[in-house]
């Protein structure tokens, strides 16, 4: 079985994904991590040396490969839905969950991290809002279920995911 988590930076894809995977005894897979392993450098360095477009190409390759062979809980990067190729791949999947989070919560959950190349370039709240405005329809369109993340415990979120798979 495959459960795929999509949603903005700081929505909780990795943290929920890890707990969920452990709980239902599936492997946890993170597409950003796979890209870092494949390239041998961090996402931030990929953006700064090769550019965002190169990173988006890698995301398509890694998602394609992952969906072909893997079962597991798969956490994706917040921009995975930017490329149409990825949206088409995800639409064919059964268990794609959109972890929907307010921009304020995204902001709070990303503010102490310096790992995200799209952030810390000015006003993070504004950047997150703009990305969310641009991407929301893709998250909605690409997912089978939407989970509201604000004001919920991890247990409640996980229960809702399991119930809908
Ligand atoms: C990105 C989100 C990041 C990472 C990269 C780009 C985005 O993943 O893939 O920094 O475009 O929103 P997280 O959603 O895990 O932070």
Structural description of this entry:
35% of the residues are buried. It is globular, with a radius of gyration of 15 Å. The chain is 56% helix and 13% strand. α2 (31-39) packs across α4 and α3 crosses α4. It contains eight helices and five strands. The longest helix has 19 residues, at 124-142. By secondary structure, it is α/β, with parallel strands linked by helices. A five-stranded parallel sheet has the order 2-3-1-4-5, with helices on both faces. It has a single domain (2-164), classed as P-loop containing nucleotide triphosphate hydrolases (Rossmann fold, 3-Layer(aba) Sandwich), CATH 3.40.50.300.
Helical coverage, percent range: 55-70%
Structure summary, number of beta strands = 5
| Chain-averaged pLDDT | 97
Task: Please state the second-level CATH architecture.
Answer: 3-Layer(aba) Sandwich
Bound molecules: shikimate-3-phosphate
- CATH topology: the name is Rossmann fold
Main sheet record: 5 strands, parallel
Q: Summarize the helix and strand pattern as letters.
A: EHEHHHEHEHHEH
CATH homologous superfamily heading: P-loop containing nucleotide triphosphate hydrolases
């Amino acid at each position: 079985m495959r459960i795929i988590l999509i949603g903005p930076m700081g929505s909780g894809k990795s943290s929920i994904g890890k707990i969920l995977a452990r709980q239902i005894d599936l492997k946890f897979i993170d597409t950003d991590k796979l890209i870092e392993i494949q390239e041998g450098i961090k996402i931030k360095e990929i953006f700064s040396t090769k550019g965002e477009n190169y990173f988006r190409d890698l995301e398509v390759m890694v998602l394609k490969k992952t969906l072909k062979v893997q079962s597991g809980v798969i956490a994706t990067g917040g921009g995975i839905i930017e490329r149409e190729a990825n949206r088409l791949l995800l639409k064919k999947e059964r268990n794609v969950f959109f972890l929907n989070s307010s921009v304020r919560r995204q902001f709070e959950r990303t503010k102490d991290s310096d790992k995200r190349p799209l952030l810390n370039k000015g006003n993070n709240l504004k950047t997150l809002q703009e990305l969310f405005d641009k991407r929301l329809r893709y998250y909605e369109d690409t997912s089978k279920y939407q989970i509201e993340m604000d004001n919920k415990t991890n247990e409640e979120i996980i229960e809702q995911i399991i119930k809908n798979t």
